Amino acid sequence: MDLSARTAEQIGEAIRRTRKARGWTQGDISARTNLRVATISSLENGDAGTKLATLLAVMAALGLEFRLAPRGGSVEIEDIF
């Protein structure tokens, strides 16, 4: 599943959808990351003050990776070389 996000709210929603698709609760993520449930909730609600380290820890727990791409579409193989 590929999700694109441009705002803190969209990132939070993508995290929430992924968590729910796995059947996990915020408590499950908390246990895997040693972060408070309130911190997970804040991230999922799009709190722009969330630390990058927190986002990366939650993403790692969910088996996600962080990628940067140009806005507006996919990258063609010709654009890489």
From TrEMBL:
Pfam family, one: HTH_3
Stored PROSITE patterns: HTH_CROC1
CDD domains for the chain: HTH_XRE
Bilayer-spanning residue ranges: none
GO molecular function, one term: DNA binding
HTH cro/C1-type domain sequence ranges: 15-69
Identification of the protein by name: Transcriptional regulator
Organism: Celeribacter ethanolicus
